[in-house]
Structure formats: structure tokens, C-alpha cells
């Protein structure tokens, strides 16, 4: 039965950039379910900002493929969630619309870049939300806010309509309080779309199963090494112990290429971003260019004034790494490192079905705590490898440290998203019971 | 001083839709920004989807030019800021083009066969177009109808030695493209050329933006003269990019701006690598210009020059083949010389002429029903009607209406007698052995009879009449 959902949330954590007070919905698998969508996913008729001033006033004339699918299944799109500007961050503090607070502890960041989606779910404003994950942007806020967040295999969900940050790494994925809801949302959004050439026709039609007996779980030493909070590691080890109790066997594995993962990740994502974000020039949408200046000057001034500092930093980095004379030293090498990491995972997956470790090295930071970019970049160390390898990865809550949630990260083989979901489901069912 | 020329040709391939979206390419007569979608407008989040037909056309060209198609080719982003470039990058091919190492056969300046090597061909999208509004100096307008139009870039080795050779190469290339059905030569701006030219031992100059193949010879001829004059005066040729001013026929310096670009090429992560090498075998090529020219000479016995003219345009060659059965030699002369001349004079294309009409005309000529001269008159009547949009009358009807049927000699006896009586001096001259006088008298009769008589037959009649009159 189609209708209109009235949505007027108490958004005390600043989870939303835009809310739709009267959200229409239809019939289908998600009839009348309120869904929040990250604000880098195009929604026809609803402004889409990427949390940036440079898109001010931009209302997409078309729906992203995932939004089409949500509407087709009857979902009510109730709002667009806050994020780090263009997805560049892990705290949701770089948003032009102010930071989002962590509902578990408002003095903490919700993680990022899909912090608004995570906070909206964690605060109970919506049961499900869409996030996007380029280097951990779904899993990090899921871990920090104590919810479930899933990054699908690269090529499983259409990117059509997702405003690109780093095309070769990012995927849209579901976020919810339970694995079951994540799986439910996944079965709606993972549908073939010929408009995304990097996609494969592998729809997700799956009911989670808690039977994981005989599952081989790899535990990489690199995921418990330097920089990982010992108490976080302890929680995760306990969680892996529960998987063993459920019939899984654990095996030590190694991803030696991890040493270069962050360097490769930041070279690739900034390179792609520098090209993707070049189109924001004030000619077709966003704040208009000043036509009294020469066009070159006008572009420069508009971009300087309307991109935030972190975005400008990454554009500069990416422009540099693609420059003549440097591209061989940086971009080409990053691609080699990326292939090596993908191979490391493939090798590990010859012996194991699932790789388990912490999602984040620490619990949620305090708002404003991380103000040097490098230490923030380091926080992506455990999530970015899955993006480099294109494999599915989930973060599922596994206890708390100092009252703050910890995330268990489970990764699987390419296109074995179902197995990752099942493992998370089995764990969740066990600890909930 | 040897002239060294290499060309980069951008050809608009004639697909129905754009290179990466479903928008129609047929925008010539439409209002600005009416053939656009999120993809070709570069709206945030839109993704490119490669047009299969464009790839097939590219492969056809690669096969026709005898090229090697790469096992894996790749689309790259060429990054630069410009208001007509919707995404601030152009999707093109850089390190891994569609195909490499081809050849095109032309004639050199001495008429000998010559091979021009083709370096590479690749696919890329056209940017939009800036429209400068007269009177409004503060802004320009952008039309994105052209944004995403598929282009095939064809790059040659520096194998041409004169502007004339470059023109012949382009003519040949254009003909091949037309034969392949991948290019519409009538479309404005369908072929754009950048030319690299140097005099041996000197720096190379790139002339950009030559938008007609006729302009190429002009631009290059200008450059040869300019560069020669510089060297003659003891100056150096600067390595630079120059723009061709079509209207003035000159090139001007782009002041080094273009060379400063760093395009930061990298593989477009939105598109997968292209693996199409094995599809080349499946492509059936049509008969190409050289083969058709040779066949025309063999099958129809036409001269090399006629064969070359007739096969220089596939539509003209098709036309000839439709009327050749009447009399191949007669048809060759009439189509390649007379008809083509009359069409050029009227700036008409062969497509406007119904082959049946010309066949009928050829039948009349072959049967001797009309003279050559009357034939030309019929042709002109027909084409004039076409140009003015009047119904295209059949030759027999024109002959009947204009009374152009060949007249038998005795029909002219009175005219001949009148001309002889009116020109006693010429008659006298002829009698005293001046052959030229006869030509004059025959001409006078021709004039009076409006070309309806065969001049040879008239000559006989006039000559006999004078002799008889003398008895």
C-alpha cells in the first residue's frame, strides 16, 4: 500500500544534511521502511551535496541506480546523511555542514566518512541506511557507532549515481542494526545495472544462515600488530573464539603486502579524486563562476573558496602523483602494490574461507582529537586493504572498550558476500542469545 | 630542403548514438543542449558506457588500413580544465590504443605508388562547443550537443613530403572511410586535422584546428613558405603550436600555451580494458577504393583517370555501376566528366540525381536519337530543375518538349543554303582550299539548328552543298 511517511526526527547528533518531512513510499520488499541515504548518492529532486559547499544548490535530475531500486521496493527515502566532504575522512568532521556526533558518546566522532548514516541508525532514527566505502567509510563508522556495516565485493552494486571519490575502490553498501537487515537491504541494492561497466551480473539473493561449522577462518598477524589498541585486539580475539565455538577453525595467515597498503591506497584514491573533482567548476551546477574574471582565474577562486581544506589537500596530492615524471614513481607503483595485496589475499583464501580481524585499530576518537592528517590516514590501515583487493568486508559489533563499541571485521573471497554475511550473522546470533 | 609532414586526423564516426551514452548524434539542425543526458553533461555520479558500434567502426578502419589490433586496449582520462569539457577530462586512449601499424597507399608527386604508414588509431569523445555571443564580451555559452560524439583519431608517421601529398593522403583516407560506411563526408566538421610539419634539419611546427581537408593543403603550403623564408633570412624555426585561420589562409602562433599542458593521463577506472582483437576476423570489409578502381578498369575497360574519379566516392561509383550496362565507355565519359562537372558547377551531390534518368539519357545518346550537344542540354535542364526543387523531368520528355531530337541532314537544307548565300567570302575561301572556312560555316549552321545535328554530318552536307553550288 503506497503512502507518505512523516519524518521529523530529533536529529540531535547532526546525522542529516537534508530530511524529507513527507517521504513517499510504495509497495515491495521495503514498503514504508524509512531509509537514510548518504549525501554522495544522487537522488532526483532531493539536493545532493557531498557535504561540500561546491555543490550548493545542486539537485540531481536523476536517481542513482540504488535509489531507483529502493523506490521500486517501496522504501521511503527520508533524508540525506552527513559525511566527510566527498567522503574524504574517517570522522565526519570535514563536512561543510558541521560534524556529526557519535550517539553512543556525543563527545566522540561517529567515524566516517558515512558517519551520518551510522549515527542515524545508531540513534534509532532509521532502521537502515546506505553508506559508501572507499577505504573503510562504511565499516569505520559502523564499528565506532556499534552497528553493522557491509562493503560488498567491488562490482556487486552499481555505482551509477554515486558521486565519485575514488572509482576503482568505492562501493555503496548497507548499514543497519542487525546483520539480517543489512542482508535485506543488500538484496534490494545488489541488482545488475548495465550503466556501470565495472559491474558484474551477480545479484544478491540470500537469507543469512548461522551454520558456520567447518568454516576456515584466517587470522592475519598484520591485523593485530603495531598501532592496534591491545584492548580492541583482545575483544576481537574473543569474538574469533566465539566463531571457533560455533564450529569454525582458525588458521594464522599473512598479508605481507599490508606494509604498502596505506601508501598505495592514498596514492590511488587521491589520484582518482583529483580527476573526479575537477568537474566542479561552477559552469553547470553549484555556485556560479564569476564571469567578470578570466575563466582560469574564476575556476581557481571558486574551487579555493568552496572546497574544504582536506579535499584541497587530496586534490593537490593526486594532481602531483599523476604529474608527468612522477606518475611512474607513484601511481604506477601504487598499482603494483595493489596487485600484490590482492594476490596476498587470494593466496590466503586458498587456505581459509574468511579472514577476521579488528575493523579499526582503536575505538572512536574524541571530536577534534585527530587534527593532523597523517594520524587520521593511519586509522584506515585495517579497512583499506579490502578496497584495494575488491573483496567483501563487514563490520559487526563485538563488545566495548571504555564503553565504546568495537567492530569485528570479516572479509571473504570476491563475490562470496553471502559467506561473509553468514559468518557475521552466526556471530551476532550467538552473542545476542 | 626536404619537407616532412605527419598528420593527426580526427574523424567523427557515424554512429547513431554518442560514444558513452544513448544520446543521438544527429544534432546538426537542433537547438543547443537538446541532445544531452547526465553522462555527456558530466553530471556527478554518471558513468560512461562504451558504444559497441563505435568500437566495431574502429575495428573496420583498423582492418582496412591493415593494422594490428592490440590484445588489450584501454581508455584513459586526459585531464585539463576548459569550459566546454564537461568532466574536466576527456576519455580517450593513450598508452594502449585500439590498433597500431597500418598503411595507406597514395601517389607521390611524380605519380608513383607510395605508402604512408599509420602509427595508430584510437577512439575518443569530442568535447562540447563554446559559442561566443557577439556583443556580449563578459561570457560565452556552452553547447553540449557535441559532447561525447565519437571520434576516431588516426595518426600517421611523418611520411608525406609535400602539402599536395598530404591532400592526396586525406582524399584517399576519406574515400576509404566512406567506403567503410563509418564516416559521413557531408557532415560539417566531420573531419579535423592537426598537421606536424618541418623542413629537414629544422624544428617541427604543429598546426592545429584545420577543419576541412581542403584547408590542410592551404595551411601546409603557407607553413612551407613561412618556414623557408625564415631559414632564408638566417632565422630559426621555433618549435611551437600554430593555429590555422581558415578565412585568411594563414597560421598564427599559439604562443607556447599548448606545450605547457600536463594532461596527467591515467586509465579511466570507470571503464574496463577492451579486448576485441579476436573480433577482427569476423569483420567483412566491403570492396575498398583501390580494388574497385582496378576492377572498373578490368571489367568496364575504363581509363585509369576515369576509374580513379568514379571510385573516388562510393556513391559515384555505385551510380556508375547502375548505368554502366548501357555502354561502359559512354557511361564513364558522361558520368565522370560531363555529369560530375555539371554537379560541381551547381554544388550538387550525386545523391540528388536519379540513375534511371541518366540511364535513359545514355540510351538516347547511344541510339543516336540526340547529339552529344543536345545531351548536355538535356542534362542541364534536368539538374536545373533538381536544384530549384522542380520535379526532375525524364530526358525523353525534355527532348520532346524542347524538340532536341537529332534531325536528318535534309531537314537543314534550307538553313545550309541560307548560310552559304549569306557568307560568300567564306565559301570562296573554302573553295580556294582554306579548310578553316568550312568550320566557320558549319558553326553558323550549328548555331541556327541549336545543336540538333551531328557536326560531322553537317560538315559533309555543307561541303557537298558548296561543291554542288559550284557546278
From TrEMBL, chain A:
Region: Disordered, residue numbers: 88-115
Regions of compositional bias (Polar residues) in chain numbering: 89-102
Cellular-component GO terms for this entry: glutamyl-tRNA(Gln) amidotransferase complex
Domain named Amidase: residues: 27-420
Coiled coil: none
GO biological process, one term: translation
InterPro entries linked: Amidase, Amidase_CS, Amidase_dom, AS_sf, GatA
Residues annotated as signal peptide: none
Statement: the UniProt record of this protein carries the keyword Coiled coil: no
SUPFAM superfamilies: Amidase signature (AS) enzymes
EC number of the protein: 6.3.5.7
Top-level lineage group: Archaea
Record-level Gene Ontology MF annotations: ATP binding; glutaminyl-tRNA synthase (glutamine-hydrolyzing) activity; hydrolase activity; transferase activity
Catalysed reactions, semicolon-separated: L-glutamyl-tRNA(Gln) + L-glutamine + ATP + H2O = L-glutaminyl-tRNA(Gln) + L-glutamate + ADP + phosphate + H(+)
Pfam families: Amidase
Catalytic center residues: 38 (charge relay system), 113 (charge relay system), 137 (acyl-ester intermediate)
Record field: compositional bias (Low complexity): 103-115
SUBUNIT field: Heterotrimer of A, B and C subunits.
Family: Belongs to the amidase family. GatA subfamily.
NCBIfam families referenced in this protein's UniProt entry, alphabetically: gatA (TIGR00132)
Annotated function: Allows the formation of correctly charged Gln-tRNA(Gln) through the transamidation of misacylated Glu-tRNA(Gln) in organisms which lack glutaminyl-tRNA synthetase. The reaction takes place in the presence of glutamine and ATP through an activated gamma-phospho-Glu-tRNA(Gln).
Protein name (record): Glutamyl-tRNA(Gln) amidotransferase subunit A
Phylogenetic placement of the source organism: Archaea, Methanobacteriati, Methanobacteriota, Stenosarchaea group, Methanomicrobia
Gene designation: gatA
From TrEMBL, chain B:
One annotated GO molecular function: ATP binding
Keyword Chaperone included in the entry's annotation: no
One Pfam family matching this protein: GatB_Yqey
EC number of this enzyme: 6.3.5.-
GO biological-process terms attached to the record: glutaminyl-tRNAGln biosynthesis via transamidation; translation
Highest rank taxon of the organism: Archaea
Start and end residues of each Asn/Gln amidotransferase domain: 318-466
Keywords, ordered alphabetically: ATP-binding, Ligase, Nucleotide-binding, Protein biosynthesis, Transferase
Residues that span the membrane, as ranges: none
Catalytic reaction annotation: L-aspartyl-tRNA(Asn) + L-glutamine + ATP + H2O = L-asparaginyl-tRNA(Asn) + L-glutamate + ADP + phosphate + 2 H(+); L-glutamyl-tRNA(Gln) + L-glutamine + ATP + H2O = L-glutaminyl-tRNA(Gln) + L-glutamate + ADP + phosphate + H(+)
SMART domains membership: GatB_Yqey
Class of enzymatic activity (EC top level): ligase
Family: Belongs to the GatB/GatE family. GatB subfamily.
General function of this protein: Allows the formation of correctly charged Asn-tRNA(Asn) or Gln-tRNA(Gln) through the transamidation of misacylated Asp-tRNA(Asn) or Glu-tRNA(Gln) in organisms which lack either or both of asparaginyl-tRNA or glutaminyl-tRNA synthetases. The reaction takes place in the presence of glutamine and ATP through an activated phospho-Asp-tRNA(Asn) or phospho-Glu-tRNA(Gln).
HAMAP family on file: GatB
Subunit structure, as described in the record: Heterotrimer of A, B and C subunits.
Name used for this protein in its record: Aspartyl/glutamyl-tRNA(Asn/Gln) amidotransferase subunit B
UniProt source species: Methanoculleus bourgensis
Gene this protein is translated from: gatB
Amino acid at each position: 500500500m503506497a503512502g507518505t511517511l512523516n519524518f521529523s526526527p530529533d536529529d540531535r547528533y547532526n546525522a542529516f544534511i537534508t530530511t524529507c518531512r513527507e517521504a513517499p513510499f510504495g509497495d515491495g520488499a521495503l514498503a514504508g521502511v524509512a531509509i537514510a541515504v548518504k549525501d554522495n548518492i544522487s537522488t532526483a529532486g532531493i539536493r545532493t551535496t557531498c557535504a561540500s559547499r561546491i555543490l550548493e544548490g545542486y539537485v540531481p535530475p536523476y536517481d542513482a541506480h540504488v535509489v531507483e531500486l529502493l523506490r521500486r521496493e517501496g522504501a521511503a527515502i527520508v533524508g540525506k546523511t552527513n559525511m566527510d566532504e566527498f567522503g574524504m575522512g574517517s570522522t565526519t568532521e570535514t563536512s561543510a555542514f558541521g560534524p556529526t556526533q557519535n550517539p553512543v558518546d556525543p563527545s566522540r566522532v561517529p567515524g566516517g566518512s558515512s558517519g551520518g548514516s551510522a549515527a542515524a541508525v545508531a540513534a534509532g532514527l532509521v532502521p537502515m541506511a546506505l553508506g559508501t566505502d572507499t577505504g573503510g567509510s562504511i565499516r569505520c563508522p559502523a564499528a565506532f557507532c556499534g552497528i553493522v556495516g557491509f562493503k560488498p565485493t567491488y562490482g556487486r552494486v552499481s555505482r551509477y549515481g554515486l558521486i565519485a571519490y575514488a572509482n576503482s575502490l568505492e562501493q555503496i553498501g548497507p548499514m543497519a542494526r542487525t546483520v539480517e537487515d543489512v542482508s535485506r537491504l543488500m538484496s534490494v541494492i545488489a541488482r545488475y545495472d548495465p550503466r556501470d561497466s565495472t559491474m558484474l551480473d551477480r545479484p544478491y539473493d540470500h537469507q543469512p544462515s548461522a551454520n558456520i561449522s567447518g568454516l576456515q577462518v584466517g587470522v592475519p598477524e598484520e591485523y593485530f600488530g603495531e598501532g592496534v589498541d591491545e584492548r580492541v585486539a583482545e575483544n576481537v580475539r574473543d569474538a574469533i573464539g566465539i566463531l571457533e565455538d560455533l564450529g569454525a577453525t582458525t588458521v594464522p595467515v599473512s598479508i605481507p603486502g599490508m606494509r604498502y597498503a596505506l601508501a598505495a591506497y592514498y596514492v590511488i584514491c587521491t589520484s582518482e579524486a583529483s580527476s573526479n573533482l575537477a568537474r566542479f567548476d561552477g559552469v553547470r551546477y553549484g555556485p556560479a563562476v564569476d564571469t567578470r574574471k578570466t575563466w582560469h582565474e574564476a575556476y581557481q577562486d571558486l574551487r579555493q573558496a568552496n572546497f574544504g581544506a582536506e579535499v584541497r589537500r587530496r586534490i593537490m596530492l593526486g594532481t602531483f602523483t599523476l604529474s608527468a615524471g612522477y606518475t611512474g614513481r607513484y601511481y604506477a607503483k601504487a598499482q603494483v602494490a595493489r596487485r600484490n595485496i590482492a594476490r596476498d589475499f587470494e593466496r590466503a583464501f586458498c587456505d581459509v574461507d574468511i579472514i577476521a580481524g579488528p575493523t579499526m585499530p582503536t575505538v572512536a576518537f574524541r571530536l577534534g582529537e585527530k587534527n593532523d592528517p597523517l594520524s587520521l590516514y593511519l586509522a584506515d590501515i585495517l579497512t583499506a586493504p579490502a578496497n584495494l583487493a575488491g573483496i567483501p568486508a563487514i563490520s559487526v559489533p563485538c563488545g566495548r572498550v571504555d564503553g565504546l563499541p568495537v567492530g569485528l571485521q570479516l572479509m571473504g573471497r570476491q563475490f562470496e558476500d553471502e559467506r561473509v554475511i553468514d559468518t557475521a550473522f552466526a556471530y551476532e546470533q550467538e552473542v545476542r542469545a | 630542403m626536404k619537407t616532412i609532414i605527419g598528420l593527426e586526423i580526427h574523424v567523427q564516426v557515424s554512429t547513431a548514438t554518442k560514444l558513452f551514452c544513448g544520446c543521438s548524434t544527429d544534432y546538426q539542425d537542433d537547438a543547443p543542449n537538446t541532445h544531452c543526458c547526465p553522462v555527456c553533461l558530466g553530471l556527478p555520479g554518471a558513468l560512461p558506457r562504451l558504444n559497441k558500434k563505435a568500437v566495431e567502426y574502429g575495428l573496420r578502419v583498423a582492418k582496412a588500413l591493415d593494422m594490428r589490433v592490440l590484445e588489450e586496449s584501454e581508455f584513459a582520462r586526459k585531464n585539463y580544465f576548459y569550459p566546454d569539457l564537461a568532466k574536466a577530462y576527456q576519455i580517450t586512449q593513450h598508452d594502449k590504443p585500439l590498433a597500431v601499424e597500418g598503411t595507406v597507399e597514395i601517389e607521390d608527386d611524380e605519380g608513383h605508388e607510395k605508402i604512408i604508414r599509420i602509427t595508430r588509431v584510437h577512439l575518443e569523445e569530442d568535447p562540447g562547443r563554446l559559442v561566443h555571443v557577439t556583443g556580449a564580451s563578459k561570457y560565452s555559452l556552452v553547447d553540449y550537443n557535441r559532447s561525447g560524439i565519437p571520434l576516431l583519431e588516426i595518426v600517421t608517421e611523418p611520411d608525406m613530403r609535400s602539402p599536395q601529398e598530404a591532400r592526396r593522403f586525406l582524399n584517399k583516407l576519406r574515400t576509404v572511410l566512406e567506403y567503410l560506411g563509418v564516416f559521413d563526408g557531408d557532415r560539417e566538421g566531420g573531419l579535423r586535422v592537426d598537421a606536424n610539419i618541418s623542413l629537414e634539419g629544422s624544428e617541427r611546427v604543429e598546426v592545429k584546428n584545420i577543419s576541412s581537408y581542403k584547408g590542410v593543403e592551404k595551411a601546409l603550403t603557407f607553413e612551407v613558405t613561412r618556414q623557408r623564408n625564415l631559414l632564408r633570412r638566417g632565422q630559426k624555426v621555433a618549435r611551437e603550436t600554430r593555429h590555422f585561420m581558415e578565412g585568411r589562409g594563414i597560421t598564427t602562433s599559439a604562443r607556447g600555451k599548448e606545450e605547457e599542458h600536463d594532461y596527467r593521463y591515467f586509465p579511466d577506472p570507470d571503464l574496463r580494458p577492451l579486448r576485441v582483437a579476436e573480433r577482427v576476423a569476423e569483420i567483412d570489409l566491403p570492396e575498398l577504393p583501390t580494388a574497385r578502381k582496378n576492377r572498373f578498369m578490368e571489367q568496364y575497360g575504363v581509363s585509369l583517370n576515369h576509374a580513379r574519379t568514379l571510385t573516388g566516392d562510393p556513391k559515384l561509383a555505385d551510380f556508375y555501376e547502375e548505368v554502366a550496362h548501357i555502354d561502359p565507355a559512354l557511361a564513364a565519359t558522361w558520368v565522370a566528366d560531363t555529369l560530375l562537372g555539371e554537379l560541381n558547377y551547381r554544388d550538387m551531390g550525386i545523391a540528388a540525381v536519379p540513375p534511371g534518368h541518366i540511364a535513359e539519357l545514355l540510351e538516347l545518346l547511344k541510339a543516336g536519337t540526340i547529339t552529344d550537344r543536345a545531351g548536355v542540354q538535356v542534362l542541364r535542364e534536368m539538374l536545373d530543375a533538381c536544384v530549384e526543387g522542380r520535379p526532375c523531368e525524364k530526358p525523353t520528355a525534355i527532348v520532346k518538349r524542347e524538340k532536341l531530337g537529332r534531325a536528318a541532314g535534309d531537314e537543314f537544307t534550307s538553313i545550309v543554303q541560307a548560310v552559304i548565300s549569306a557568307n560568300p567570302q567564306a565559301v570562296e575561301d573554302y573553295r580556294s582550299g582554306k579548310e578553316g572556312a568550312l568550320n566557320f560555316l558549319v558553326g553558323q549552321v550549328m548555331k541556327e539548328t541549336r545543336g540538333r545535328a551531328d557536326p560531322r554530318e553537317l560538315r559533309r552536307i555543307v561541303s557537298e552543298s558548296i561543291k554542288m553550288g559550284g557546278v
